[in-house]
Amino acid sequence: MIYLLRSFFCLLGLNLLLCAGVQAKEAIGPAAPEAVLTFANREIVTLRATVQGATPEMRVKRIGERLRLMTEEELSHPLEHKDMALDGVKGKVFGVGGQLIFVLYQGDLDEEQGKDLEAAAKLAEARLREALDAAAQQRKGAVVVKGILLSMFATMVAIILLWAIQRATSLVLARLQNRVQAAREDAKARWRWARQAWSLITRVAQLLLAFLWVSVVYLWFIYVLAAFPLTHPFADQLSSYLFDMLATLGAGAISAVPGLLSVAVILFLTKATNDVVANIFSSVDQGSAVIPGIHKDTAKATRRLVGILIWGLGIAIAYPYLPIAESNAFKGLSVMFGFMLTLGSAGLVTQMMSGLVLIYARALKVGDFVSIGEVMGVVKEMGMLSTKIINMRNEEITIPNAVLVGNPIKNFTSAGGERGALVSTKVTIGYDAPWRQVHAMLVSAAQRTSGLRREPTPYVLQRALQDFYVEYELFAYVDRPLDRILILSELHANIQDEFNTHGVQIMSPHFVLQPRNNVVVPREQWFAEPADKA
Q: Would you say residue 482 has pLDDT above 90?
């Protein structure tokens, strides 16, 4: 019986060729756009030859129509192919149950692949058999019902997983939020940093949740497509995409390990070197070590500059070993960053260089009481770009470093060193008051003023001998420069009390007429109280 079927099949193919014309060489026309024969969502073979005016696209349509009209019983029949040769033209005739499906000609083969007709026919036969079996299975009710049930089960599992992921994410975020709330009351809590990064934590959690949801839906979609024979190829394609992506990521991660290890070693050595240099300059800053050419006041700034140079050199050495160093995206980002830095660096570099000038000139430092133009106060912070000063009204004033360099700076603290900032006030007293008594009263008033240091001892200078009076100036050191106005107010009050106590008039006399007696202090009154007779 099989022999008769094969004979019939062969004769049918030969009759088809004879009807097409005995001149087979003329039957295969010039090249036309190739077309892919697909059935049951599976690629069978690519047709490239034009036969009797039928282009590959027309041939594919006719073959597909024949396959769609086949019954379930016909699809289950054995698939066979036979050799065919006529006037030097070779081909393979495919049939199912005695019905002709299509003819694969020598002209349908891709010459660049170098595959012969027999190998192409075996591959096409295997693919066509798989497609026919899938189409036959898809027409069976039991298979469809099984696929639907499996899809419903997969859907239920996916919904449960999505709910569990959502629930777990909510619980984790709620717990983290409770820890953050507790950290607000406990300043020593380890989670207090999360208050500043809570928004970032929330965004990361949302991204992770979306990734897990997409993963579950993707796997569910693959499983549902694989449950039906007709859509099984789509499931295979999605699976191959997933595995290819994982393989690419895995291969990239493995290939990046040597470079990452090199980067880790380089950065470790860089950090170790920076720590050693930082310890050396910290010793200079604390006064426990001396480096020629490095002053104590500039040790901290020098440490930062050297640290920037060390880290810059380390990053430059480690950069070629980064896995993304050769990527076009990273190169483009580097170019954009360099362009932005070039455009905006003019003013930035000016301010930074001005800051370095201030630091290395030791014009001022944090805690100094200074006067810059109309601003007078204590230096709160010295940055690379600007300097912050707290004035006597407790206002914070920010001055760009370039402005500081261009203005004279009066530093009331640096000359005094550890003694603090120096303040002074002037009084003019007539020549009839003993100067020793005036000195003693001014020093006594200063010693009774809070905010003025007892050591070093306040002192008085006679600044000028005017025509009618003597100009005295009291100098003292303050503990709190920002309270200078209040301290001077208290000092003035104490001076008034001191002079009133000893009956000395605070005035700047001007004579209209020469007094009858000379305005002098008798010798017996030279050491009037509170002057020290010693």
A: no
